[in-house]
Amino acid sequence: MPINLLIACRVLLFAEGLRRLLERDSDIRVMGVVTSGEELKDKLDSDLDLILADQVLCRQILADYQFDSAKVLCIVENRGVLTSYGDLSDLVSRGFAGFLPAYADESMLAKALDSVHRGELWIDRKTLRDSFLHKGREEVSLTRREQEILRCLNSGLSNKEIAEKLRITEQTVKSHCNHLYKKFGVKNRLQLALYTSQNEFDQFFT
Length: 206
Description:
Rossmann fold; Arc Repressor Mutant, subunit A; five-stranded parallel sheet
């Protein structure tokens, strides 16, 4: 099914350029273009998968709204701007999925949209490390099964795929995931991926 995408950009000329570019892709359905916070309210009720937003509207979206399924990809002029948006874990829980540099080309845009739509984060490792330095490097002890589950989660597998691969039930997978969330002090699998990435993923495996 096509990706339902909303473009939120204050510069109409730039937004229309993005629209024309994205409409050439049969896998993307552009649901509209908004150029102000006032216009956002009417569009956010749509069945959206992704919101491609500039820095100002991205900040407003993340501050005023929280999404169950839609993800927000922010176009930024510099990477350091992300740290001024607040705690990264909280942003991810509200729907933030990454940022796209303003210098990105068509190929990078396509890769970013595809990755975010598949549930991944489009954030470079340096930004992840910088954003999570305050969490420290606490030691976490994992069972062999938890290690297997964590590897699968960080490979992007769904609960069903993990269950089939490890030959266990989906309920067992969910139970292990909840234990992992508690051990790492996170709320969901995206936050878990962020934390384990920042703290050098391999250190959690024996």
